[in-house]
Amino acid sequence: MLLLFVISYASALPSNFTTKEIKFTSEGVTLAGTIFTPNKAQAAVVIIHGSGQEKRMTDFAIILANNGIAVLTYDKRGVGESAGVYAGPEVGTNNVDFSNLNLLSLDASAAVNTLSKSLSNNKISIGLIGGSQAGWIIPLAAEKNKKVKFITIFSGALITVKEQLRFQFYTNGDKNFWDTHSEEEARKHVFNDPDRYEFIDTNPKDILAKLSIPGFWIYGSKDIQVPANLSIEYLDTLKSKGKHFEYKLFPNLGHNTAFSDNEEPMNDAINWIKNIDKSKNHKQKN
Predict the structure, then answer these.
(1) CB 118, CB 96: distance < 8 Å
(2) Is 27 left (phi over 0), alpha (psi -120 to 50) or beta?
(3) Are 254 and 179 in contact (CB under 8 A)?
(4) What is the pLDDT of residues 57-110, one digit of tens each?
(5) 17-161+201-276 is classed in which CATH architecture?
(6) What are the backbone angles phi and psi of residue 111, rounded to the nearest 5°?
(7) How far apart are CA 123 and CA 108, in angstroms?
(8) Which residues fall within 8 angstroms of residue 245, CB to CB, at 6 or more apart?
């Protein structure tokens, strides 16, 4: 399964942070990463990978750190300087089975603990941020680790993994898919197509229903890997049950919402993170 973000965004902002190379242990292996500490941190996040053989996301971390957000970004297990075995289609293994998604969420939880220990201010809220496949991993990690106080997800599916695969096989990489297909047609295939692969599925709605922390999702209407409108409907259902979930839909963007030519999605995510404590206090007062 593809579900990759192309990270080509380079920050030209002046450096307002320090960095520290770190190693931490998760499920018997040593993972390597970097902590970015702003001069005046207002929040903190761990960056969670998409589905590919992803090393630490330095460009992403620089953008966040230059905006007052402390960051831990690390090489995925089995990639770069991190030990362990990488699972993915490139090496003939299944990276979307629940066992692998759960393992990656345990890595994310260990990263949260590592970042928490590095912060001099223990009042800073720690969250998780990532895109695509991270949309399944982040809720799993947040459920495991109570240090996670918020989640921010770019183009994350609210449907099951098997349903997402049905959608992706149906769109078949056609960038003009939504010019020639209706929402009704897409949903018919999402819910009725036979599965090409058998594995233990993951339903993010069930996991999100257990969370009490705020979350923010960003979508592109032209996404051909994740059905944005269907995912938003599920978010609305969760919101109607009292979940503090927000979202924003960009009509002209596809799957790569985080690092497109449009900087607005990233700016929206950063502003939401930096104001999360204020918004929580506001809700409590009301």
Answers:
(1) no
(2) left
(3) no
(4) 999 999 999 999 999 999 999 999 999 999 988 888 889 999 999 999 999 999
(5) 3-Layer(aba) Sandwich (3.40)
(6) -65, -40
(7) 20
(8) 208, 214, 215, 216, 217, 235, 238, 239
197 Cβ partners below 8 Å, 6+ apart?
Answer: 94, 165
Q: Which amino acid would we find at residue 56?
A: R
CA distances, 14 to each of 10, 63, 115, 178 (Å): 12, 10, 23, 40
How far is 209 from 237, CA to CA, in rounded Å? 10
pLDDT tens for residues 114-170?
A: 999 999 877 899 999 999 999 999 999 999 999 999 999 999 999 999 999 999 999
Q: Where are the domains of the chain?
A: 17-161+201-276
Identify the three-state secondary structure at position 152.
Answer: strand
Half-sphere exposure of 265 (CA within 13 A, CB side): 31
Query: Phi and psi (nearest 5°) for 197?
Result: -130, 150
